[in-house]
Amino acid sequence: MISPDLARALAASGLRWTPRSGDVFMIPGGELDGETFVVSELTIEPREYLSGTILAFNGTTEWALDSAAVEDTLWLPREDQLREALDHQFISLERDAGEYLVRTASALGSGSYRAPSAPDAYAEALLALLRRNETP
């Protein structure tokens, strides 16, 4: 998962989110700041009984929020979503000297972006393209 700072920078640079099942997000500020949530169409809760564990399928849980506006949330794109957003500009992902290196190429040139994790390297590459207005 990318850092919240990188997610904020991507959002500020124009990366838009259409929520889908499996997406991870945060609700910055307030008492839920720092908590991550996953978009899900169904909540499955393991319940322990003397007879064993069951998986309870729930539409929602009692403590759930009623709702949150997308504009009040912060999307934390997954590695596959970042790679998909890079589209044809993505060239390769390599491991180099304990870091990850993403290489890109476009009409405006090529680039290399390093980070300690693969998702952060993809995010850095996408951020650079968005800031150059090369919407992937």
Structure description:
With 136 residues, the chain is of the alpha+beta class. It is 23% helix and 32% strand. The chain folds into 2 domains: 18-76, no CATH class; 78-135, 2-Layer Sandwich (Double Stranded RNA Binding Domain). A hairpin with a 2-residue loop joins strand 6 (90-96) and strand 7 (99-106). The longest helix has 14 residues, at 118-131. The radius of gyration is 18 Å and the shape is elongated. It starts with a helix and ends in a 5-residue tail after the last helix. The relative contact order is 0.19. The mean pLDDT is 89.
Topology overview:
Elements: H1 4-12, E1 24-26, E2 36-38, E3 43-49, E4 52-58, E5 74-75, H2 79-86, E6 90-96, E7 99-106, E8 109-115, H3 118-131
Helix pairs in contact: 1-3, 2-3
Helix-strand topology string: HEEEEEHEEEH
Low-pLDDT segments: none
Roughly how many Å is the radius of gyration? Answer: 18 Å
Separation of the first and last Cα atoms: 21 Å
Strand fraction equals: 25-35%
Oligomer: single chain
Indicate how many domains the architecture comprises. Answer: 2
Structural class: alpha+beta
Number of helices: 3
Give the overall form. elongated
How many beta-strand segments? 8
Q: Please give the share of residues in helix.
A: 10-25%
Walk across the major sheet and give the strand order. Answer: 2-1-5
| Mean pLDDT across every amino acid position | 89
Let me know the largest β-sheet.
3 strands, antiparallel
Organism: Miniimonas arenae
Protein name: Pilus assembly protein CpaE
